[in-house]
Amino acid sequence: MLPDFDNNLSITKICYTLLTKKIKNIMKLFKNLFSKPLSTKLTVTSSNGFHLRPVAKFSALAKSFKCDVSALFNGKSVDAKKVNTLLSLSLEKQDTFTLTTQGKEAQKALESLQTLFGRLMKEDMEIRETTKETTTYKGKILEGNIIAKGIAIAPAIAYQTQTVTHDNKLTFDKALTKTLDDLEATYMSHKNGTDAEIYLAQKELLLALNETCNSLESLETQITQESNKLKNTKLSAKIADYQDILKQVKTHLGVEIKLLFPEHPFILLANDLLPSEIALLEETKVQGVVLKETAANSHTAILLRASGITSLIADTSQIPLAKEVILDSFAGVAVLSPHETDKKKAQQLQKQYNAKKAHSASKRFDKAVTTQGQHIKIFANVGDVPSAKLAKEEGAEGIGLLRSEFLFKSVKPTLQAQTNAFREIFDNFDDITVRTLDVGGDKALPYINIPLESNPFLGVRGVRLFRTHPEIMEEQLHAVFLASKGKKIKIMFPMVSSVEEFTKAKSFAQNVAQKYNIDISNIDFGIMIEVPSVLFLIEAFNEVVDFYSIGTNDLTQYLFAVERTHPLLKVDELSPVVFSALKTVITKATKPVSICGELASNTKAIDKLINLGITILSVSPKRIAQTKETIRHV
């Protein structure tokens, strides 16, 4: 009889796990005897709570430090290096927790995690309720909340699944590995989209679960326990991510839950959907989706918006099955038993919407020219090589803001790696503006040590890094110079508050070029206008800069002294104060001025910006077509 290798391996793994855990506990006890814990309090300011995606990023950075990292809330302390345990705190808006680090890199970890947390809260914008349009129908109306806008006309069907078993199943360990590989592959294929981080977050969640689970039964138990902790909280929508992971692991274990769809067009009704099921829907004849229990900020909702599937949150039990329904998610309604006039109206709206969408897409490579014949250049804000390629595909005429932080991840990039990445982006465009490294404040990197600051947003960040980390800035500029050969490149310094700061940074850059014997006559130098003091110094800056780019996001928050994601205080980016500041710059500037903040793609602001004299707008790649189309009607 042959030995049971799989069983022996499982016993070995269990013994190894127990032994490793015991050794870790002994080491932890020894370390705690000789090191002092450091703590700080962090408050959740995002309306979405401290949910899976930011938690995954936070835990990933925590794991990079050689020290213990824990989070304490309501008397419960958890390991902050594990996504599932940190998520189990169910931290909601205005909750304050204590972050504690202890060990060799405790100080560095505390500072980096604090600044990362600030950035995560700032970036995690609230999903705003979409404004509903007013459309009158004769049929019975079911109101709901909009997920993704559109018009759908088709019979409604209920969510149905079928369980299928396969013989070619994997062992539990291999099933976990295959699921992790699948999530990584899905992340890479979606890297250009807003949905990419969802798959990366699910991968981090599964990695954390893998540390304590050695069988399907233990994984199911752990997921049930973690899901129960999230019930009836702001983070309950993330339970679907746990279920999604479990489903994918089961599939590789030979138990596949298949969704059943008809061959004809349909509107799908379900309580909720798993994030991974949206990709399956895209391959069917789905016209629309109505979900009963999802949330506007759930990963399922985010993926529905990214896919463009007309969708609504409403009471699906009120919708008759197998009968034609109109789903109008512009108005936020489902029309039950629609009249013929309702169908004609919906068909007309659908035709207009599709034509408008197709028109904008087809003309995305055309210039944006106003009704008065003025050409407004539309550039893109990009953060890495994939987003630069997407910008090219979407019709960008150049890059108005290249955020160089994409190269600076958990490991410091080499000169060659930076040069290669910059060169790949430069090859796609003739007009490119590179923003020098902007870390500090709300952006943390483990190898850039910035002392803990009481107000990081007003501390060492942006151009001030030339003073504190000259070696890193020198290498970055060296890489830009090497990659720019044969190209006209603009280099922009962020967070400049005085003429002296700019001249010192430019002199630093020129010294780098001289040190490596590089001709930089092809390089222009300018500033990103974010600090209000610059508004009073435009005439002086005219003497030294080659261009200006206005970062309206930070400029607005500094003008009003209100952080953009503050839970209680709100700032109106369309305030007359903002436009008065812009007018000051545009009127006094004798060098080219562009805008690269969110205001540049705000359809309510574009005509005002053009009337002020702005001729270059830089927006996110996905907003290029819409921005160009808006300009054509100004």
Structure description:
- The structure is a single chain.
- It contains 21 helices and 23 strands.
- The protein has five domains: 1-32; 35-123, 2-Layer Sandwich (Histidine-containing Protein, Chain: A); 140-160 and 260-361, Phosphohistidine domain (Glucose Oxidase, domain 1, 3-Layer(bba) Sandwich), CATH 3.50.30.10; 162-257; 363-631, Alpha-Beta Barrel (TIM Barrel), CATH 3.20.20.60.
- The strands form four sheets. Strands 15, 16, 17, 18, 19, 20, 21, 22 and 23 form a nine-stranded mixed beta sheet that branches.
- The protein is of the alpha/beta class.
- A hairpin with a 2-residue loop joins β2 (68-73) and β3.
- One of its GO terms (biological process) is phosphoenolpyruvate-dependent sugar phosphotransferase system.
- Belongs to the PEP-utilizing enzyme family.
- Residues 37-130 form the HPr domain.
List descriptors:
21 helices; alpha/beta; 23 strands; about 40% helix; Histidine-containing Protein, Chain: A; about 625 residues; 8-stranded mixed sheet
Give the beta-strand count.
23
Number of helices: 21
Structural class: alpha/beta
Portion of residues within helices: 40-55%
Integer tally of domains: 5
Shape: globular
Topology:
Layout: H1 5-34, E1 38-43, H2 52-63, E2 68-73, E3 76-79, H3 83-87, E4 96-102, H4 106-123, E5 140-143, E6 145-148, E7 151-158, E8 161-165, H5 172-189, H6 196-210, H7 216-230, H8 239-252, E9 255-259, E10 266-270, H9 275-281, E11 286-291, H10 299-307, E12 310-313, E13 324-328, E14 333-336, H11 340-362, E15 368-369, E16 375-382, H12 385-394, E17 399-403, H13 415-426, E18 432-435, H14 465-468, H15 470-483, E19 489-493, H16 499-515, E20 523-529, H17 538-542, E21 547-550, H18 552-560, H19 576-588, E22 593-595, H20 606-612, E23 616-619, H21 624-631
Parallel strand pairs: 7-10, 10-11, 11-12, 16-17, 16-23, 17-18, 18-19, 19-20, 20-21, 21-22
Antiparallel strand pairs: 1-4, 2-3, 2-4, 5-14, 6-12, 7-13, 8-9, 13-14, 15-16
Helix pairs in contact: 2-4, 2-6, 5-6, 5-8, 7-8, 9-10, 13-15, 15-16
